[in-house]
Amino acid sequence: MFDGATQESTLSEVTKLIAVLIWPATLLVCFLTQRENVRRILSALAVLAESANKIKIWQVEVEKTVQNSIDREVEKAAAEARPRRTPDIPKNEALAAARVDTLISSVADQPSRDNLTASVRQKMLSLAQEYETTRATMPSGKDRTGAMNAVVARMRTLAIAAKPFLKEFSENRASPGIRLCAIIILQISPDRRYLEWLEQRYTAETPFIFYQTSVALMQAVRDIGAQNYQQLHRILTHAIGIIESFREGEPDRNTLNILQSALKTLEGMEHEP
């Protein structure tokens, strides 16, 4: 005969054993009685996994296709870049910028759009470095200016898509190439918040960037001049004075012509009804 303590201990051990066995037994019973349903669930999960994999592959292919199209637009713009003495943005570059932005915006998948936008930022940073390397390694002259113009043409094709990075680029104090990226964005998309920043370029940059800044100011006059007349008039007058008194060589006549033309265009707006 078992005493009370032994019976209680034996009962406890049996209870523990049942607790250990009950869940595997329950699962086994469920599996045996619901085999068909389990098979269907597993088949459905397999189909979902395969579909998800196909969607991922499709997204990667879409990104690659759009990326290749962007690269073609960029290189085509560089190949067609020509020396210019007018403030007009080349039509082919403006249209290419619009096409690149449309290509990215048309991608339905948000992560893919984010990846493409991030790649645009990286391309702009690479072009900034290319500009700085070109300026540092080539002797001053037409060949160097032509090479830098080709870099600018590439930048312009990315300018609309790169606008989310305007603040980042404009605030960079270490790289004139990155600040050039900001100027090119403002050539395509003038923004009154950056007019003072453009004015500051004439005391902080080099003549090539003076010229690109003047193009940006002309575009600002055309697009937002009427609403910002006083501010732009002061900025243009100040910039003309800086270029006319430039002490590191002859004032660049093309830059001066654009600034004077921008001022004349702006003053003509004052008399419009």
Topology (elements, then pairings):
Elements: H1 4-33, H2 35-79, H3 91-105, H4 110-137, H5 142-158, H6 166-170, H7 176-188, H8 195-200, H9 207-224, H10 229-244, H11 253-270
Note down, in words, how this protein is organized:
The chain is mostly helical. The protein folds into 2 domains: 57-189, no CATH class; 191-273, no CATH class. The chain has 11 helices and no strands. The protein has helices spanning 4-33, 35-79, 91-105, 110-137, 142-158, 166-170, 176-188, 195-200, 207-224, 229-244, 253-270. Helix 2 packs antiparallel against helix 5 and helix 10 runs antiparallel to helix 11.
Number of strands: 0
Range of strand content: under 5%
Compute the CA-based radius of gyration.
33 Å
Shape: elongated
H/E series: HHHHHHHHHHH
Percent in helix: over 70%
Largest sheet: none
